[in-house]
Amino acid sequence: MWADLRPIGRSPATGGYRRFAWTGADTDCRAWFRAQAESRGLTYELDRNGNQWAWLGDPTAGDAVVTGSHLDSVPDGGAFDGPLGVVSSFAALDELGARGARPAKPLAVVNFGDEEGARFGVACVGSRLAAGLLTPAQARELRDSDGLTLPQAMERAGYDPGAIGPDPERLARIGAFIELHIEQGRALALPSEGPVGGTGSPVGVASAIWPHGRWRFDFHGEANHAGTTRIEDRRDPMLTYADTVLAARTTARLAGALATFGKVSVEPGGVNAIASLVRGWLDSRAADEETLVAVVDGIQRAAVERGTLDGVEVSVTRESFTPVVEFAHGLRDTLASLLGRDGTPVPLLPTGAGHDAGILSASVPTAMLFVRNPTGVSHSPAETAAEDDCLAGVQALADVLEGLACH
Ligand code: GLV
Ligand code: MN
Ligand code: MN
Predict the structure, then answer these.
(1) At what angle do helices 387-405 and 83-99 cross, to 10 degrees?
(2) Helix 329-339 / helix 387-405 crossing angle, nearest 10 deg
């Protein structure tokens, strides 16, 4: 499976993946998913929001145990964020077959569309639409950097966007959703940093997802000549932006939170012209919502204050927000007991990264498994995991599926 996926959407220059929603690379990943489903004799479905499903057993029977993740990537993403969950899900079904396990409930593997939000700015579009947390009207307004709307992009990829929207019937068929994911930190690799009983285990169970969101900061200044405009006559939005990046770092650090400006656009973007508009996208996350709101408010205040000095107008638009997710304790405890059978307790850890599992957790009992990441690096071509740990992840996922769905 890895050999087939490896070349898809990989930049030869960086070795990173550029598998953005509804692009050719995404289409190739989707074709791979469908082929994996069909080669195993699983029932393949593409839902109204473009999420793919592969069913073992009757899709309509209800109380299904579903596993999976996503195949899209951030710009220059690693190989594991997303695909490890999908590959491990198919491998875990194979493992159940090899064990001779007899499922008493339907099992499914899912590939949620557009998890990273790299193209249209909002993360987890496929699961958010299904769960009713993004309305079809909001989704239709989303545009990529070329101005193409989400429905236009879907159509160009050969998919009919006419029926996007809440899918409560489909979600009601799910009795439990388990997402396996590479850990995006080093809690498993560095036991002393594990928040709860890290034991150097290759696999952990998620306790919670920090609340997080994305905010677009628009800094409006005045375009002018770089060689003739006196310093005191300038209204340079780049200055306000730069100061805001520093303020974000300080504000987040003091609050024990995270704040990142990872994307910026400059208009008109001439070397010899003062910019007229700088747009910076802030990603901020914190252990609790109150802290997150206070951090973003603080950054916004700092931006406006600095803008007053620079003659720059600042406006802030919240593009997405995901509240804190505390995974269902019942399912989480079931996973811990299924995986701790040999007497070694499985580590329980929170994460700052967003996931479809977090989105679904409002409507479906949901849990996550993390596979050790030796460097903690993610959203980078350097992301890696040891093969033995990935195989331990498959065994753990198979144990969970067997415990939840089989006789
Ligand atoms: C998704 O990986 C996110 O946390 O942004
Ligand atoms: Mn990611
Ligand atoms: Mn992911």
Answers:
(1) 60
(2) 120
Pairing of strands 366-371, 203-209: antiparallel
Q: What is the pLDDT of residue 191?
A: 63
21 vs 9: CA distance, rounded Å: 11
Neighbours of 269 (CB within 10 A): 11
Residues forming a β-bridge with 344:
none
pLDDT for 198: 46
Asked if 237 and 305 touch (Cβ cutoff 8 Å), the reply is no
pLDDT (mean) for 193-197: 48
Q: At what angle do helices 237-255 and 289-310 cross, to 10 degrees?
A: 150
Ligand 1 in reach of 123 Cβ (< 6 A): yes
> Which residues line ion ligand 2, judged by CB < 5 Å?
81
Give me ligand 2 centre to Cα 315, in Å.
27
Confidence of residue 317 (pLDDT cuts 50, 70, 90): very high
Question: pLDDT band for position 49 (50/70/90)?
Answer: very high
Per-residue pLDDT tens over the stretch 367-407: 999 999 999 999 999 999 999 999 999 999 999 999 999 97
